[in-house]
Amino acid sequence: AVQTAAIVLGPAAAGAEGVGELVLMPAAREKQNFGGRDTRADRRGAEILSEVFVELHGGGFACEEALEAMRRLRYDVAEVEEPWWCRELSEATGDLEARLREFVTQLLYMSKDVAVVFGHSHFFRLLF
Fold first, then answer.
1. Please, what is the end-to-end C-alpha distance for the chain in angstroms?
2. Which run of H or E residues covers position 21?
3. Which of 124, 44, 30, 23 is nearest to 86 (CA)?
4. What is the mean pLDDT of the chain?
5. Residue 106 CB neighbour total at 10 angstroms
6. Using CA of residue 102, residue 108, residue 111, residue 114, what is the dihedral sign?
7. Which letter, b or e, does each residue of 27-63 get, where b requires 16 or more Cβ atoms within 10 Å of its Cβ?
8. pTM here?
9. How far apart are CA 111 and CA 122, in angstroms?
């Protein structure tokens, strides 16, 4: 999701002054499915951003714009400094429902006027 945000929204969010901000929210992470390899994480905080930079760097010209935008953005990784992923093989329904409520609450009470959320399909299907 961070890579998608960098490629799609990064140039617009960074703007000429580079004042845009990406906030990494663990409440918006993908639903942990049994056996799902893309629903687990092993990086925290700035490590996540470093990995995105490495992966985008190998992407060719189209990713150069995203890399430049990422350099101008600000990042809030405070909520992902500690382990932030489900450690079980699958996420319990009650835990997932609580996380969905937390996500909506964070959006409702955020200090920003505009928010664009990037994430994964299973999470959004459950949300809507």
1. 18
2. strand 21-23
3. 30
4. 78
5. 15
6. positive
7. bbbbbbeeeeeebebeeebeebbeebbeebeeeeeeb
8. 0.76
9. 27
Q: Kindly report the backbone phi and psi dihedral angles of residue 61, in degrees, each rounded to the nearest multiple of 5, phi listed first.
A: -60, -45
Give the bridge partners for 75, in sequence order. Answer: 22
DSSP type of residue 75: E
> Is residue 114 within 8 Å of 23, Cβ to Cβ?
no
Give the pLDDT confidence of 36-93 residue by residue, as tens digits.
555 566 788 889 888 888 877 776 545 677 777 777 788 889 998 988 777 777 788 8
What burial letters (b/e) apply to 70-84, b meaning 16+ CB within 10 Å? bebbebebeebeeeb
Distance CA 86, CA 63 (A): 30
Neighbours of 115 (CB within 10 A): 10
